[in-house]
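Reply to dn_fold:

You asked what the input looked like. This is it:
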Amino acid sequence: MRRFVLVSSILVVLISIAYYHSNLQSLLHQSSLLFDWTFGSSTSKSPNTNINTNITTDTIPSGKQQQHQQQQPPMLNTLKNTMSKTLHNAKITPHRSSARGHSDHGWLNTYHSFSFADWYNPKFGSFGSLRVLNEDRVKANSGFPTHPHRDFEIFSYILSGELTHRDSMLKKGAEGGQSDRFYRMHRGDVQFTTGGTGIAHSEFNEHNKDTVHFLQIWALPWKRGLTPRYHTQHFDDEEKRKGFVTILSPLKGGVDATREQEKAAEATIPGTIPIHADFVMGAGIIAPNSTFEWNVGAKATDATKRKVYVHLTMTQGGKAKIRVDGRDDAVLEEGDGAFVEVVNAGDKLAIESVGEADAEVVVLDTA
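and this is what came back:
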C-alpha cells in the first residue's frame, strides 16, 4: 500500500513537470517503468534491469505500432493524448467532409462547408466573419457567367487548372492585357473582390480541356457601402512548403480607414492582399511527418479573442491527412475542416501532416 501511495505521488510530480516543461517522452518512459514496477507486468522488468524501454511509435516498425499502443496502460494513453495538446483550453470540433453540402451539376461539382445556394444547415451558417467556403471543380468551357456581388469580401484560391476573372465592363477579346479587372488565374493565384456598393464579374474556365479546382471564400466586411475593388496576386508553392504563408490581412487603418488609405489599399502585413475585416488567411503545403504552426492573429488583428477554421483541400486523392493541435480526435482527411475556438492572438496552432502525401491546408482566422 505504501509503495502504491509513493508511486502515485511520483506520478503526480512527473505530470506537473511535464505540463510545465512539455517533457512528454521522458514522462512516458518513466511512467511506463513505474507501472511495470508497481503492477508487475509480465513483459517488463523492474526499473533497475538493463533494458531499453524508451520506445515511441516513431521508432517502431509500422506493423508493430498498433500492438505497442495496445500494450500501453489506459492511463498512459490518456496522459499521452492530454500532454500532446499545446492549446489546452481550445475547443476543436471537426467538420467532416460528409457533413458538407454537395451538388454535382455536371459542369460544376461543388462542396459547401457553410450553408449556400439551395443547401441549408443551421449548424453551419457562419463562423465569425467567415460566411462561405466552397470547394469547386468547374469543367472546361464552363463557369459562372456575369453576376453581381454586394457587401461581401470574396476571394478565389486556385488549386489547379485555369480560371478567368473578367469585370462586367470588359468585353471578351478587348481586355487590354492582364489586370485586376481581367486575369487568367492558375495554381497559386488568388483573386479578391470587395463587393461594396455593387460590382459584377464573371469567373469562367475558358480552357479547352482542363477542369479548374479552386476554393471560393466569402467574408463579411466590417461595414457596408465600401468602394468596390479587385486584387489579384500570386503566392509560390515553394514558400508554402516552408511554413504557412499569409495570404490576406486587414486593410491598414481598419474600420476607420481614410479615403487615402482605401485608395492606397495597403494590407497590415506587407505582401498580402488587404481585406475589410478583422480576418487573416494563411496557406501551407505540409510534407508527411512535418508540422507547421499558425500564429493565431498573425500579429495583425484587433480582437485578441479569435476563432480559426482549418480546411484540408482535396488535392491528393485521399492520401493527405492532418492532426490539429496534436489531438487524436482532430485528425482530418481531405475535405474535412475544423472549428478552433477559445484561442487568443499569439497562440500557436500546430498542424501536423500524418498522411502519405503533402497536405495543402488553408487557415481562416477571424474575430
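The longest helix spans residues 2-21.
Hope that clears it up.
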